[in-house]
């Protein structure tokens, strides 16, 4: 499948999902060195996003699986809706900063709310160079959470 065909195929998958959900949305799609980036554009996209992005995560996973079914070569597929992922990342980084401050100040581990692997990665990356704290995940999906703990000398 050529690159153009792949982008068209992914756009078609995403359009079909929106249509079947009864949502009027357009799909913007592009490609960079890391993979394919697709975004739903429109009004009232909350149903596609779901609670804490669970639905958009599932759509992304399904799109990837369908687009590359039987294919030897694969690329990352990122699906967003109305800029949700960046807004959520800002919220996660703020929560991470607050947890890090509490962990250092109170010298105790702070567990964040359960979140997806993608969301935990945002927090791990945000705090990886932060002085005085470490991060790790604990628990089992879907209740797996990230913990911010003070570094012990």
Summarize this structure briefly.
With 153 residues, the chain is α+β, with helices and mostly antiparallel strands.
Please characterize this protein's 3D structure.
The protein is α+β, with helices and mostly antiparallel strands. 46% of the residues lie in helices and 22% in strands. The strands form two sheets. It has a three-stranded mixed beta sheet. Strands 4-6-5 form a three-stranded antiparallel beta sheet. Helix 1 (3-20) packs across helix 3. It is elongated.
Q: What secondary-structure arrangement, pairings included, does this model have?
A:
Elements: H1 3-20, E1 26-32, E2 35-41, H2 46-49, H3 54-67, E3 76-81, H4 84-106, E4 110-111, H5 117-127, E5 133-138, E6 145-150
Parallel strand pairs: 2-3
Antiparallel strand pairs: 1-2, 4-6, 5-6
State the main characteristics.
single chain, 153 residues, alpha+beta, three-stranded mixed beta sheet, three-stranded antiparallel beta sheet, 5 helices, elongated
Order of helices and strands: HEEHHEHEHEE
Overall shape: it is elongated
What oligomeric state best describes the polypeptide chains here? single chain
Question: Biggest sheet, strands in spatial order?
Answer: 1-2-3
Number of strands: 6
- Separation of termini? 54 Å
Counting H and I runs of at least 4 residues, what is the number of helices?
5
Instruction: Outline the low-pLDDT stretches.
Output: none
Please identify the structural class as seen in this structure.
alpha+beta
Average pLDDT, to the nearest integer? 93
Radius of gyration: 18 Å
Largest sheet, if any? 3 strands, mixed
